[in-house]
Each structure stands twice: as C-alpha cells, then as structure tokens.
C-alpha cells in the first residue's frame, strides 16, 4: 500500500527538522491542513507544504525568492528552492502561530493592513510572475458551474460574475499590473513570526505576484460590504493601510471607486465556493453564505460602470 | 424600481447607511419614509460647530458608518455579534 501524501510529507518534514536541529525534541508534530490543493504538516519548529499538483517549479522558486527578500513582510522560507515529492513540489518554513479563529476581537486587522501596504510598496523582483487572484476566482466559478449549474442560488452569482470586466475574471491583463501583491489574503494567511521577532508575517506565496493591489484589500472589503465584518474592523484595516502609505486606494475620501470591482469579484468567488461546498455536502446554505448570494443579487441592480458616478 | 417621473430604471445607492434610489434617466432621487430625516441628521452632525472647548483627548464620537458600495448589505451599523462570530470562525479564514 502506498503511504498517503500526508504520511510521506510528515517524514520529509521530520528529515528537514532533524537536519536543521539534530537534538530535535520531536514535539508538536501533526497535519496542519490536508486539502486536494495543499497538504501542510509540522514537525517541531519546521513546516513542510506540498503545493497544488501542477505548480510550476520556476514560478514557485521566484515566489520563494520574494519571500526571502522581504523577511519583514513575508515569512521567509527555510530553503530557497522547492523539493520534489513524487508529483508535488514541497517547501519548508519555520512554524508560526496562526490567528485564533475563536477570538474576533484580537484579530490583527491593523497589522495585516500594514504588511499588505509594505508588500505593495516594494518593487517586484525581476521576472516575478503575475498575481493569481483573478484566475483563482475564475476557477471557483468554474467549479460552481460544474457542480451546481441549475440552482436558483447559482444564477445571481453567475450574473454578477458576467457583469465584471474581463481583467477581474482573469481573462485579460489588469489595468494596473506592476505592483507586488499577495493574491489570496485572508486571516488564515497570517502567522506570528517565530521569536525573537514575535510579530505578524504573511504566509502562502502560491498566488503572489504582480497585479492590481486593490485585490488584496478586496476580501475584507467584500466581507464588510456583505455585512459580515463590523464597520470598526473594516475602518481599522483601511486606516492602517492608508497610514502605512498603501498605494491601492487614495489616502483620503471614498475608497469604493477603487475597491468596487475586486470586492465584487471576491464576493462572487466566496459565494461560488460556499455554494459548491454546500452542494457537495448536500446541505442548505447557512446565514453567512446566504448573505454572499444576496450581495451578488443586489449587484445586478448596480452595474459596475455606474459605481464611480455614485461615489461622487 | 421605475422612476415615477420618466419611467427609467432606478438604482439603489448606500450613502452613509441610508439607501437612496437614483433614476438612471433623469437623475432624480427617491427617498423612503424617514430617509430625508436620516440624511438631515447626518448633515447636521457634520456641519454643527464644535461644542465649546471640548475637553482634552476623548474617545471617537459615534462616527457615521464608513462608506459602502451600492450593492452592500442593508442595515449597516446594526448588530454584528452573532453573525460576526459565525463568519469569523470559517469565512474569514479560507480562500
């Protein structure tokens, strides 16, 4: 019997940890994530990640180089190039504690925004690949089409998607594409930098690249617009981003003319993912998921091209 | 909804938490019951002269809700407690 990927990756992580520290206490070992697109395991202070099947070696190496170059923004990898484990690429990282999903009050909104602003202000390294946010949204919509094409909740989601400009659907170059972006920011993408620094760092470079920086603000913006993120948390995030000189939105005034398109795209992506998951589990949508579908339905009444007018 | 004056389509916009319908044809604006008062109240908060010599550093006054897009959820500034915990637990941590 072939051992599972997680089991093989566990052994790889152990070898990497012991190479780094022969007297390893071997505590805190286990699987942190095991999804079709990524498996992440931990052995003491070392984390090994198996990237999605089909990940490009050259592009991933360039993304690792960016993380090594910006250690005050991104968690730097332990090794500069990916290892190979059968058909998967594996990278190694120091372990850092994640944000606690049980305590919304302590979520590091300001720290996250400051990190994103610093990332956006940093010139991309030569040959940095494109940020993959729009492509990721397109994949979520494709999965929805394949899983749940005819449901009543699918229709407003697909309509909102079709109303977006081609760049936001990953079908054309974005209007502004020279900025270094994370590409998939959410609260699961922050860890505490291991001591002695002990402040937050961004992780997961899979979608990192050059693109439109508003994409990185668009997920919190979408949560706020859908009524899922309280105004004070959104204000804390946006204010910290502006105070750090972040270039994605103007320093004052209404940020929505800049945020509108990517926030719509992220709302559609999140709604599509939620619908696909619910359909596969044969369960109804919960209240939070329904609020995303409702937002998609409201988008039909206010096409993107009218939004700038409404913001004046 | 349709504009009562020129029959063109009206679009909903959210201004500081107040839903406003604007006609895409004649640009006329339709307000629901109580919305004019809500806007007037917001306006007076902005234009009121500062009260005489406010005492040194104080907490933020109850600021109007930050700007939101026209397609945003209604009732911004409402209660978030229950939904907040639920969405925080899973939605805010995954792609």
- Helical content class of chain B: 10-25%
What is the typical, i.e. mean, pLDDT of chain B? 70
State the end-to-end distance of chain A: 65 Å
CATH architecture of the domain at 1-45 in chain B: Roll
Strand segment count of chain A: 9
CATH class of the largest domain in chain A: Alpha Beta
- Percentage of residues in strands of chain B: 5-15%
Overall, the morphology of chain A is: globular
The largest sheet of chain B, given as strand count, sense and whether it forms a barrel, is:
3 strands, antiparallel
Low-confidence stretches of chain A: 307-312
| Cross-sheet strand order for the largest sheet of chain B | 1-2-3
- Estimate the helix proportion of chain A, in percent: 40-55%
Output the helix-strand order of chain B.
EEEHH
> What CATH architecture label of the largest domain in chain A applies?
Alpha-Beta Complex
Helix-strand blueprint:
The complex is a heterodimer of chains A (312) and B (95).
Chain A (H helix, E strand, L loop, with lengths): L4 H16 L8 E7 L2 E6 L2 E5 L6 H13 L13 E3 L2 E7 L14 H13 L11 H15 L6 H9 L16 E3 L8 E3 L7 E3 L6 E3 L2 H12 L5 H13 L12 H25 L6 H13 L4 H7 L2
Antiparallel strand pairs in A: 1-2, 2-3, 3-5, 4-5, 6-9, 7-8
Chain B lengths: L9 E6 L2 E6 L5 E2 L4 H13 L33 H10 L5
Antiparallel strand pairs in B: 1-2, 2-3
Characterization of this structure:
Chain B: Pfam families: Zn_ribbon_TFIIB (PF13453). The complex is a heterodimer of chains A (312) and B (95). Chain A is an alpha+beta fold. Chain A has helices spanning 5-20, 57-69, 109-121, 133-147, 154-162, 214-225, 231-243, 256-280, 287-299, 304-310; strands at residues 29-35, 38-43, 46-50, 83-85, 88-94, 179-181, 190-192, 200-202, 209-211. Chain A folds into two domains: 5-94, Phosphorylase Kinase, domain 1; 104-310, Aminoglycoside phosphotransferase (APH), C-terminal lobe (Aminoglycoside 3'-phosphotransferase, Chain: A, domain 2, Alpha-Beta Complex). Residues 307-312 of chain A have low confidence and may be disordered. Chain B is α+β, with helices and mostly antiparallel strands. Chain B has a domain at 1-45: Ubiquitin-like (UB roll). Chain B has two helices and three strands. Chain B has helices spanning 35-47, 81-90; strands at 10-15, 18-23, 29-30. A three-stranded antiparallel β-sheet of chain B has the order 1-2-3. Chain A binds chain B through residues 99, 101-102, 104, 107, 136, 184, 186-188, 223-231, 234-235, 238, 254-256, 259-260, 263-264, 270, 273, 286-288, 291, 294-295, 298-299, 301-302, 306-307, 310-311, and chain B through 11-13, 22, 24, 65-73, 75-78, 80, 83-95.
């Amino acid at each position: 019997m072939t051992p599972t990927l997680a089991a093989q990756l566990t052994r790889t992580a152990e070898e990497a940890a012991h190479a780094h520290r022969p007297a390893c206490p071997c505590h805190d070992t286990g699987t942190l994530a095991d999804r079709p697109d990524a498996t992440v395991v931990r052995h003491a202070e070392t984390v090994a990640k198996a990237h999605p099947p089909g990940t490009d070696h050259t592009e991933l190496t360039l993304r690792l180089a960016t993380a090594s170059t910006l250690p005050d923004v991104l968690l730097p990898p332990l090794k500069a190039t990916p290892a190979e484990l059968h058909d998967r690429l594996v990278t190694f990282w120091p372990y850092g504690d994640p944000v606690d999903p049980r305590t919304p009050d302590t979520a590091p909104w300001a720290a996250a925004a400051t990190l994103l602003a610093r990332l956006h202000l940093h010139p991309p390294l030569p040959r940095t690949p494109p940020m993959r946010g729009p492509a990721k949204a397109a994949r979520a919509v494709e999965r929805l089409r394949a899983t749940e094409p005819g449901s009543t909740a699918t229709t407003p989601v697909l309509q909102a998607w079709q109303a977006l400009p081609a760049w936001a659907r990953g079908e054309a170059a974005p209007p502004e594409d020279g900025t270094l972006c994370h590409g998939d920011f959410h609260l699961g993408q922050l860890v505490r930098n291991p001591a002695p620094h002990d402040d937050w760092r961004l992780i997961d470079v899979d979608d990192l690249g050059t693109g439109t920086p508003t994409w990185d603000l668009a997920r919190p913006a979408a949560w706020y617009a859908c009524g899922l993120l309280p105004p004070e948390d959104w204000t804390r995030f946006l204010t910290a981003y502006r105070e750090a000189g972040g270039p994605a939105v103007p320093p004052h005034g209404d940020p929505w003319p800049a945020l509108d398109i990517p926030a719509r795209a992220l709302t559609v992506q999140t709604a599509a993912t939620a619908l696909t998951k619910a359909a596969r589990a044969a369960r109804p949508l919960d209240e939070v998921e329904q609020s995303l579908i409702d937002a998609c339905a409201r988008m039909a009444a206010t096409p993107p091209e009218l939004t700038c007018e409404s913001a004046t | 909804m349709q504009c009562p004056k020129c029959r063109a389509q009206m679009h909903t916009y959210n201004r500081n938490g107040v839903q406003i319908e604007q006609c895409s044809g004649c640009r006329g604006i339709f307000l629901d019951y109580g919305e004019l008062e809500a806007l007037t109240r917001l306006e007076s908060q902005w234009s009121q002269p500062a009260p005489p010599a406010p005492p040194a550093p104080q907490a933020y006054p109850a600021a109007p809700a930050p700007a939101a897009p026209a397609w945003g959820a209604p009732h911004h500034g409402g209660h978030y407690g229950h939904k907040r915990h639920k969405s925080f637990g899973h939605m805010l941590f995954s792609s």
